[in-house]
Amino acid sequence: MxxxxxxxVKSDDMVQQVPRSSFGDQEVKVGTQFQTNQGQVVTVTKVxxxxxxxxxxxxxxxxxxxxxxxxxxxxxxxxEEISHGHVHGPGGHHH
Length: 95
Prior knowledge:
It is built from one helix and four strands, in the order ββββα. It is mostly beta strands.
């Protein structure tokens, strides 16, 4: 699956430098993930004395995905699944 159909293409616009002071007393190291006040998850990619570089791209952005699957069962879609346009798992849907 191409990145465009998966987690998207990696965007340089999603990488930014943040003042080190924004993290308070929290330990900040490369690979650490933080949730912003807006709920977005960012990953620390570089730690400097005065600034921290964070990347808001999904960790799999830009990656071509390959899946190995095995079909175990085939069944006819229910009328409800057809009307909703997607499969419902055991016990119905939860949306």
